[in-house]
Design a protein that fits this description.
globular, 7-stranded mixed beta sheet, 39% helix, 278 residues, alpha/beta, 7 strands, single chain
């Protein structure tokens, strides 16, 4: 039996798979604060200290909960994921499209690269579909209480995970040499043309451009019935920041579903069949 060819689908999370930022669901119940007031405070703090937004959010989460006497644990943060809502078809998309890929001789794996919290994503009903979830996360003490960020992912640092996925350097995130290590056997690398990146806006531009420039495909999705989201996505498409734009409807037979299948068909067409010249 012929070896299946590796293909990678990489997704942003907020507003790509879910219609809102993950902290906008039950997050405010956890911190006992209005979400608008919370984010205003985070933004003021980030500006005052010239701090990365992801780090500012994580620092404020630790300090605010401590100040309010909230016993915040990892389980509490993970539990927030159960209330996350998704765009149409998302819950069934990953298995459906992977099954379709397998009929073409492709081994499709799904990854998340998000500036949001990994712990929240791990608590969602779709978490089991992903080979790896790369996102901001905390370090925890022996009681499971967060005391410091262990990873902070923003729109520019997201690109390093594209290289990690390509080289299968998925663990040991503390070790920068693993992602920069030279791989002599090119068969051990996932070809860039076999990458598809899904995003929704400007913060996804670095990943979209990285994938597209190297021969892969980027897709910008916009929220259903949201004119502003559509025009933002269309702008990136017209500026050639993304290769496709589509409504964030992942249901079978949708425009996005058909685009994904056509991309997989194209990748499968590159596979050499028995007797083909090399």
């Amino acid at each position: 039996m012929a070896k299946l060819v590796k293909v990678v689908f990489v997704y942003d999370f907020d507003k790509t798979l879910s219609p809102r930022n993950m902290q906008e669901f039950s997050f405010q119940d956890l911190i006992k604060s209005n979400k608008d007031d919370w984010w205003a405070d985070v933004n003021v703090f980030a500006k005052k200290h010239n701090m990365d937004g992801a780090l500012a959010m994580m620092f404020k989460l630790i300090t605010v909960t401590r100040k309010k006497g909230i016993h915040l644990t990892r389980d509490d943060i993970v539990n927030l994921g159960k209330d996350i809502e998704f765009y149409p078809g998302v819950e069934t998309f990953f298995k459906r499209i992977s099954d379709y890929a397998r009929t073409l001789g492709l081994d499709l794996k799904h990854y998340i690269i998000s500036s949001g919290l990994k712990e929240i994503i791990e608590g969602t009903q779709i978490a089991h579909n992903f080979h790896r979830i790369f996102a901001s996360q905390f370090a925890y003490d022996e009681e499971g209480i967060p005391f410091w960020p262990s990873q902070a992912v923003n729109y520019t640092t997201k690109t390093q995970y594209i290289y990690r996925i390509r080289k299968n350097a998925l663990d040991d995130l503390y070790n920068p040499s693993s992602v920069n290590e030279y791989i002599e056997c090119k068969d051990d690398l996932v070809p860039y043309q076999n990458f598809v990146y899904f995003g929704d806006g400007e913060t996804d531009i670095p990943c979209m451009r990285t994938v597209s420039k190297k021969g892969g495909t980027s897709i910008c999705v916009y929220a259903p019935n949201d004119e502003k989201s559509y025009h933002e996505c269309r702008k990136l498409y017209l500026e050639r920041r993304s290769d496709f734009l589509a409504c964030a409807d992942y249901a079978e037979g949708s425009e996005l579903d058909l685009i994904c299948k056509n991309i997989l068909n194209k990748i499968a067409s590159y596979i050499l069949k028995p007797g083909d010249e090399k």
